[in-house]
Structure formats: C-alpha cells, structure tokens
Q: What sequence folds into this?
C-alpha cells in the first residue's frame, strides 16, 4: 500500500479531533483528577452541553455545611441535566493535606454524590485551567465555596460569594436560567 494512503486515516483522525476541540468550550478543555479515584475526568467529554455549577470547596471551612445544600441542588436538578463540580482547594488554607481526608468530609460527612476532583489551585497563575477561564469570564474566587453558574455553551452567567447558600432564590434563578439555555 502506498504511503500516502496510510496518511489519509491519520489526517481524518486529526481533523475530527480538531472538530471535537472546536465544539468544546474553552472552559471545559482539559481534565482533572477525580477525588480518591484512579481516573481523570475529561471535562469536555463529561460536561460539554450541560449546565454547570462549579464551586471551589474546602473541608475545614466554616462554609463546608453548604455541601448539603449543593447536594440537594444536584438531586433536585440532575434529571434536567445539571452537573455540579466541586473542586477542593487549599488556596485559602482550609483544605486537608491529603485526598483521603477530603473524600471523608465530602462523601461520608456530607453524602456528596456530585463530581469532586482532587485538590487544585483555583487562584492566580498556578490556577487550574478551569478556574483561569472562570476568572476571565467573571472573577477569581474570593474565598471557599465561591459558586459559578455556567450555561450549556460554557459561559459563566452568574457567580456568587461564599455567603450565598445553595438554596438562595437568586442562585436558584441563575441555575434555572442555565438549565433553560439552549445547546
């Protein structure tokens, strides 16, 4: 078989990969390690086209009880497509030193079933790509449990401070707006 025929499948794979990348919003490009699992989460594959709530968390923060409210929100809206992504961070010096302790707080203490990642940087030049794009579209987290509501196209439509509880009417309104957004 001539060499040029071998190049055709490679080129097709290359261009289909570019097409997939073009469909993936900037916010979701890349992957993050799942909390206490041996797998990485391909953000685009897992969350593209879905409304999101992204929140930076910390196990030992006074706002940690918001895990319960975030889980209730997820349970209320998951059948409509809502995804919640919790990203633990020690940027504000209130996260456990190891993922096992973080997992215990999230999964055992608060019964979290939504997606949680291993601890990440969420502020500054070292922030994970997801949080760099969130900051570009709105602002960097000011503290733990800073919440971002993202529409199906990967655009931040609202962000909320740590003081805003997950059952806050304005927060719920933003989530419902994200759910109503068209793909």
A:
């Amino acid at each position: 078989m001539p060499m040029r025929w071998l190049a055709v499948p490679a080129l097709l794979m290359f261009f289909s990969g570019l097409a997939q990348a073009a469909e993936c919003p900037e916010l979701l490009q890349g992957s993050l390690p799942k909390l206490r699992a041996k797998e990485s989460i391909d953000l685009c594959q897992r969350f593209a086209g879905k409304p999101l709530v992204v929140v930076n968390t910390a196990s030992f923060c006074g706002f940690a009880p918001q895990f319960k409210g975030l889980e209730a929100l997820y349970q209320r809206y998951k059948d409509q497509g809502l995804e919640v992504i919790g990203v633990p961070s020690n940027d504000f010096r209130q996260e456990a030193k190891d993922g096992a302790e973080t997992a215990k707080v999230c999964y055992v203490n608060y019964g979290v079933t939504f997606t949680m990642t291993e601890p990440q940087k969420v502020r500054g030049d070292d922030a994970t790509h997801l949080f760099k794009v969130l900051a570009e579209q709105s602002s960097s987290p000011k503290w733990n449990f800073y919440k971002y509501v993202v529409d199906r196209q990967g655009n931040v439509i609202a962000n909320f401070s740590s003081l805003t509880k997950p059952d806050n009417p304005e927060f719920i309104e933003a989530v419902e707006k994200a759910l109503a957004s068209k793909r």
